[in-house]
Amino acid sequence: MPILGHNIVRIEVEKVQSGSGKVEVSINPKIEELRLGELQLPTGRVKGIEVIVNYIINYSPEIAKASIRLLVFYVPRVKEDIDKILDEWEEKKQLPGELVAEVVNFTTSELMPLMMMISKEMRIPYPIPLPRVVVRQE
């Protein structure tokens, strides 16, 4: 797996107003920055890419605001790609699809349980819908 670790840097959740009725929630992950990083493992130092991701959770109507910023340590499958990825980011702000998919899928799976717990405590809608059982009338 190309992701060796993550670190949550900031979590901000604010309840703006209470409301009722239909609420739409959108989750927008945004990769803000890439930089060269190094991680100390028991087997030695590993060079990789530190990816700074900011998740914005929007509620419509605006009953709450949420923002989570985290750092993800990404190691490409081919170690020589590190410089190529960082150079392309500096020049064009473009990222390989594999990096984006890995980072977004990993961070979403790590953050959603945390956001579900925070949403429950703050009495705001969950960021992802829960399955519901509906009884059919025959």
Q: What amount of the residues lies in strands?
A: 35-45%
Weakly predicted, low-confidence segments: none
The whole-number mean of residue pLDDT values reads: 89
**Neighbour order of strands in the largest sheet:** 1-4-3-2
Reading the helices and strands in chain order gives: EEEEHH
| Structure class | alpha+beta
How would you describe the shape?
A: elongated
* Helix content class: 25-40%
Radius of gyration equals: 18 Å
* Termini Cα gap: 49 Å
**Individual helix count:** 2
Description of the molecule:
The structure is a single chain. The protein has 138 residues and is an alpha+beta fold. 28% of the residues lie in helices and 43% in strands. A four-stranded antiparallel β-sheet has the order 1-4-3-2. Strand 3 and strand 4 (64-74) form a beta hairpin. The longest helix has 26 residues, at 97-122. The chain starts with a strand and ends in a 16-residue tail after the last helix.
Question: Main traits of this protein?
Answer:
alpha+beta; 138 residues; single chain
